[in-house]
C-alpha cells in the first residue's frame, strides 16, 4: 500500500522542486534531486507536480476536487444500487406472499 504523506509535506516538496528547476538541465533531473533529498520516490514527486499543475489550471485533466466529487458520487451510486436490489427482492417476496392461498 502506498505511503500517505501529509499535505504540508507535499507542498514543501513542490516548493523545493520549483526552486530547484532553474539549477538543473531537465525537469526530471530536478525531480530526482529533490526526491533524493526528501527520501521519497521521484515518481511520487512527479505525480504531485502534475496534479498541482492540473489543480492550478495550467495543465488539462481532472482536478483533485473533481476527482473527490466523482469518488463520492460513485460511492453514493453503488449504495443506491444496493438499496434498489434489496427493495426489489423484498417486493418480490411480499408479492409472492400475497399470491399464496391462506389456509384457515
Helix-strand makeup class: mainly alpha
* Radius of gyration over all CA atoms, rounded: 26 Å
Which second-level CATH architecture of the largest domain applies? Answer: Orthogonal Bundle
Which CATH class of the largest domain is shown? Mainly Alpha
Helix-strand pattern, N to C?
Answer: HHHH
Average of the residue pLDDT scores: 92
Q: How does the major sheet shape up?
A: none
DSSP strand content: under 5%
Helix content, binned percent: over 70%
Q: Unreliable segments (pLDDT under 50, ≥5 consecutive)? A: none
Shape: rod-shaped
Total DSSP helices: 4
Number of domains: 2
CATH superfamily of the largest domain: Winged helix-like DNA-binding domain superfamily/Winged helix DNA-binding domain
* CATH topology description of the largest domain: Arc Repressor Mutant, subunit A
- Count the strands? 0
Separation of the first and last Cα atoms: 62 Å
Task: Output the keywords.
single chain; 104 residues; mainly alpha; 74% helix
Explain this structure.
The chain folds into two domains: 1-61, Orthogonal Bundle (Arc Repressor Mutant, subunit A); 65-104. It is rod-shaped and about 90 Å long. The N and C termini lie far apart (62 Å). 7% of the residues are buried. Helix 1 (7-20) crosses helix 2 and helix 2 (27-38) packs across helix 3. It is built from four helices and no strands. The chain has 104 residues and is mainly alpha-helical. It has helices spanning 7-20, 27-38, 42-56, 64-99.
Amino acid at each position: 500500500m502506498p505511503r500517505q504523506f501529509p499535505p504540508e509535506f507535499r507542498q514543501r516538496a513542490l516548493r523545493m522542486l520549483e526552486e530547484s528547476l532553474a539549477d538543473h538541465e531537465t525537469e526530471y533531473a530536478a525531480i530526482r534531486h529533490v526526491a533524493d533529498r526528501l527520501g521519497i520516490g521521484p515518481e511520487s514527486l512527479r505525480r504531485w507536480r502534475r496534479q498541482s499543475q492540473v489543480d492550478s489550471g495550467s495543465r488539462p485533466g481532472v482536478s483533485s476536487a473533481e476527482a473527490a466529487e466523482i469518488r463520492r458520487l460513485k460511492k453514493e451510486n453503488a449504495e443506491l444500487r444496493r438499496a434498489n436490489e434489496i427493495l426489489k427482492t423484498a417486493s418480490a417476496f411480499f408479492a409472492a406472499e400475497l399470491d399464496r392461498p391462506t389456509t384457515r
